[in-house]
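User: Can you help me understand a structure? I only have the sequence.
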Amino acid sequence: LCNRLEEKMKDVLRGNIKRLKRLPAIVRGGAIDRYWPTADGRLVEYDIDDVVYDEDSAYQNIKILHSKQFGNILILNGDINLGESDLPYTQAIMGDGVEDYTGKEILILGGGDGGILYELVKLKPKMVTMVEIDQMVIDACCKHMRKTCGDVLDNLKGDCYQVLVEDCVPVLKSYAAEGRLFDYVINDLTAVPISTSPEEESTWDFLRLILDLAVKVLKPTGKYFTQGNCANLTDALAMYEQQLNKLYCPVEYSKKVVCVPSYAELWVFYTVWKK
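Assistant: Let's start by predicting it. Here is the structure, written out as tokens:
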């Protein structure tokens, strides 16, 4: 019907307009919110058909929504974090399959969805320590994101891993004071801020603090993995790269762009190591 109407309008208007385009209707006030913005400010309509979980913790709003394409999607404070479809994200932040984690000591910052931990324990590490501040995220993902985390969040300790439900900053400071070092540090806390404006300065301060502390607990041959942000946010990514030149010791880095299915945009990941 819409196609016939479009053709009829073209015929009636007889070339008096230059462009005629039909768009899907925006559904307002629906019981399920299907519209979520990308990091670079575009609006995407997702095929969300169910609100699986929606609760406020002491730290953030936690939603898990079901998508027909992407499975259950974890959303924290309105930001899409990870869908069950998003193994490419986990693989990218672990080094894209080129690292040998056998017998290694690994520190995960954040990662409450359990995806990184689940993939790491398959690779026979010596010990993985995950530091996640929000127990409610862990519990929600343990129940509703099983395709991502498997059974690894059923217990906070396993043969080769432990989950600390704590703020990672004092933990990092304690490890640095003790001289404890890791082969790998994987930062899954937060993306690079999307803006360089003063309003984002507190987030940049946090990011710089985590960077410096993480490099301090890294072995001389170790690697630090983290997400950046959307590939379109070139100014924010450039500012992040400037921060890498301000750490307590000189570092080098590489970056890779990956398509993360549920994000609907290309995402940048960084690998950092000491010179």
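Now, to help you interpret it: Helices lie at 2-13, 87-93, 115-121, 135-144, 146-149, 168-178, 201-216, 234-243. The chain is about 30% helix and 35% strand. Let me know which part you'd like to focus on.
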